[in-house]
Design brief:
The chain is α+β, with helices and mostly antiparallel strands. It contains 2 helices and 9 strands, in the order E-E-H-E-E-E-E-E-E-E-H. It has 2 domains: about 90 residues, no CATH class; about 30 residues, no CATH class. The strands form 3 sheets. It has a 4-stranded mixed β-sheet with strand order 1-6-2-3, with helices on one face. A 3-stranded antiparallel β-sheet has the order 7-8-9.
């Protein structure tokens, strides 16, 4: 978790599938109208890759309003600090560049024979028995099975 990582997207798409990349930064949103066309064949789908300091919630809300029912999937890249870039963008014919913290890159996919289906796979394995959360405050887990959460974690480590 404390070492740099790399995610790479490669795929083979059905013919006539349009691929439209876009970038969202703190200073710039895309022209949303360029991502939606009246003559689209098929339902657009979107892949989003963002850091948690980006406008990912706003972007997913906009996509849902403009294209309800479309699949929106992707992932978060969490940098160690909110001032550290965690995304880089390479497009054919251009140099690879790090994107400013708070950025999001997306890809719109659409075509007459294109469909996107999603599955969730958590890249982790259980380290002990399941516990019931018995106390929490906001997003903090305070107790598991009636004991302090840290105590339960130490029991299984």
């Amino acid at each position: 978790d404390e070492m740099p990582g790399l995610s790479l997207l490669a795929c083979t798409l059905p013919g006539e599938t349009a691929v439209t990349p876009f970038v969202v930064t703190a200073e710039r949103m895309p022209q949303w109208s360029s991502l939606f066309r009246a003559d689209d064949e098929g339902r657009p789908a979107f892949l989003l890759f963002a850091d948690p300091y980006s406008a990912v919630t706003q972007v997913t809300s906009i996509l849902n309003q403009l294209c309800p029912g479309s699949v929106v999937a992707g992932g978060l890249s969490t940098p160690p600090l909110d001032t550290t870039p965690s995304l880089a963008l390479y497009t054919a014919g251009a140099r690879c560049r790090a994107l400013a913290p708070g950025s999001l890159v997306g890809v719109r996919l659409c075509g007459p024979r294109f469909e996107m289906h999603t599955a969730t796979a958590q890249g982790a394995a259980p380290v002990g028995p399941p516990f019931l959360v018995t106390a929490a405050k906001d997003n903090l887990c305070l107790e598991l099975d009636g004991a302090p959460a840290m105590q339960r974690l130490q029991e299984v480590s």
